[in-house]
């Protein structure tokens, strides 16, 4: 199977049109950091992806808050960028903040900024992400991890379009579009009093659910070819063929780590392939195909995911972090892997 059908390129002004084939590559420049060019790629032709991109087209023209829902690794940030760069704000800043990646004690400063002397170590004034994104868009990833004590302040930004820097009494007005994302069940968190209902309703104005890769297997060949081309170019290698058996195994695999896991598997395969034919270790993939394929009809998706995660944990000797840890192998962050292990009942043997 030759490598054909790579995504077209649209720079700076992506206009997501509908049609029978939906393959888009966005080249995006953050206007507040001209030294960095961020590339976002939305690749696929499935009806599930087309529905998502139609919603992107619909909401992008306005200023409504958007809530992106989906598992880790499904490409929520790419959708957020598509919304921003398809809107009238496209020539303004696209700022982003992962609420799970910053200690709660620093998150308020990252969001709202601080004045000099606001706390120990605040030797200079700092502009927060909300202020950086003024006239543009702010992507808040993993919004479910924002501490309860900060949620009223974020709610005020959404309702009143105003805030104060930490250590300041001066109220600042801001015109920013919020695009939030989470893999967590916010409604369940509300019941557990871990998330404010009023903030949820302000965020949930226009929800978009991003389907996991297992629900759009027809996109796997396009994504695989795309990642092969990217990895081969980066490594100065030539890979021009994906064997049919390899592509079938890739398509049937459950991909619990979604697109991020597929990208990691393809990159590793490109590294290990000595010639122009992609060589992917198929034994592990074939043993964990999506339920409903072949002889796997009696297995649930949770069974497949549990087996896969446990297998990786055994291979890494239950090391979760680091470049050779299970989280990296699965294409997940450490906190997400902990969450999945707890949900699936996976515990380290004594």
Can you characterise this structure?
The structure is a single chain. The protein is α/β, with parallel strands linked by helices and 350 residues long. The chain has two domains: 8-209, P-loop containing nucleotide triphosphate hydrolases (Rossmann fold), CATH 3.40.50.300; 213-344, Helicase, Ruva Protein, domain 3 (Orthogonal Bundle). The chain contains 14 helices and twelve strands. It has helices spanning 47-60, 76-85, 104-112, 129-132, 151-160, 186-191, 197-203, 220-234, 244-252, 258-272, 282-286, 301-315, 326-330, 334-344, and strands spanning 8-11, 24-29, 37-42, 66-69, 94-98, 113-114, 126-127, 137-141, 162-164, 171-173, 177-182, 206-209. It has a five-stranded parallel sheet with strand order 5-8-11-4-12. A three-stranded mixed sheet has the order 1-2-3, covered by helices on one side. A two-stranded antiparallel sheet has the order 6-7. A hairpin with a 6-residue loop joins β9 (162-164) and β10. The protein is globular. The termini are far apart. The relative contact order is 0.12.
Give a concise summary.
The chain has 350 residues and is of the alpha/beta class. It has helices at 47-60, 76-85, 104-112, 129-132, 151-160, 186-191, 197-203, 220-234, 244-252, 258-272, 282-286, 301-315, 326-330, 334-344, and strands at residues 8-11, 24-29, 37-42, 66-69, 94-98, 113-114, 126-127, 137-141, 162-164, 171-173, 177-182, 206-209.
Proportion of residues in extended strands: 5-15%
- According to DSSP, the number of beta strands is 12
Q: Describe the largest sheet.
A: 5 strands, parallel
Structural class: alpha/beta
Principal-axes geometry comes out as: globular
Low-confidence runs (pLDDT<50, min 5 residues)?
1-40, 292-299
Distance between the termini: 47 Å
Quick check: average pLDDT? 81
Oligomerization status of the protein chains: single chain
Number of domains: 2
CATH topology of the largest domain: Rossmann fold
* Name of the CATH homologous superfamily of the largest domain: P-loop containing nucleotide triphosphate hydrolases
Task: Please provide the ordered H/E string of secondary-structure elements.
Answer: EEEHEHEHEEHEHEEEHHEHHHHHHH
Alpha-carbon Rg, integer: 21 Å
> Helical region count?
14
Helix content: 25-40%
Strand order of the largest sheet: 5-8-11-4-12
CATH architecture of the largest domain: 3-Layer(aba) Sandwich
């Amino acid at each position: 199977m030759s490598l054909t059908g790579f995504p077209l390129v649209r720079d700076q002004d992506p206009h997501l049109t509908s049609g029978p084939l939906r393959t888009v590559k966005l080249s995006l420049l953050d206007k507040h950091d001209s030294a960095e060019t961020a590339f976002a790629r939305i690749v696929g032709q499935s009806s599930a992806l087309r529905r998502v991109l139609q919603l992107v087209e619909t909401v992008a023209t306005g200023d409504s808050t958007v809530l992106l829902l989906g598992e880790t690794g499904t490409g929520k940030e790419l959708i957020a960028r598509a919304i921003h760069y398809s809107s009238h704000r496209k020539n303004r800043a696209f700022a982003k903040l992962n609420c799970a990646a910053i200690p709660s004690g620093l998150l308020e400063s990252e969001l709202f900024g601080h004045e000099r002397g606001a706390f120990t170590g605040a030797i200079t004034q700092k502009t927060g992400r909300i202020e950086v994104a003024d006239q543009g868009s702010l992507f808040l990833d993993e919004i479910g991890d924002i501490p309860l004590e900060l949620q009223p302040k974020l709610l005020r930004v959404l309702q009143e379009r105003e805030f104060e820097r930490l250590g300041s009494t001066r109220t600042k007005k801001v015109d920013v579009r919020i695009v939030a994302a989470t893999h967590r069940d916010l409604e369940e968190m509300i019941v557990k009093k871990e998330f404010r209902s009023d903030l949820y309703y302000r965020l949930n104005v226009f929800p978009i659910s991003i389907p996991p890769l297992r629900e759009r297997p027809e996109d796997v060949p396009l994504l695989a070819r795309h990642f092969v081309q990217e990895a081969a170019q980066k490594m100065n290698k030539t890979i021009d063929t994906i064997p049919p058996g390899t592509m079938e195994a890739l398509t049937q695999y459950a991909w619990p780590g979604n697109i991020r896991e597929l990208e990691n598997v393809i990159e590793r395969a490109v590294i290990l392939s000595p010639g122009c034919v992609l060589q992917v270790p198929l034994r592990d993939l074939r043993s964990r195909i999506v339920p409903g394929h072949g002889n796997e009809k009696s297995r649930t998706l949770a069974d497949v995911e549990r087996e896969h995660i446990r297998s990786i944990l055994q291979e890494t000797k239950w090391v979760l972090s680091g470049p050779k840890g299970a989280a990296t192998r699965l294409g997940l962050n450490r906190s997400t892997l902990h969450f999945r292990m707890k949900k699936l009942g996976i515990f380290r043997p004594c």
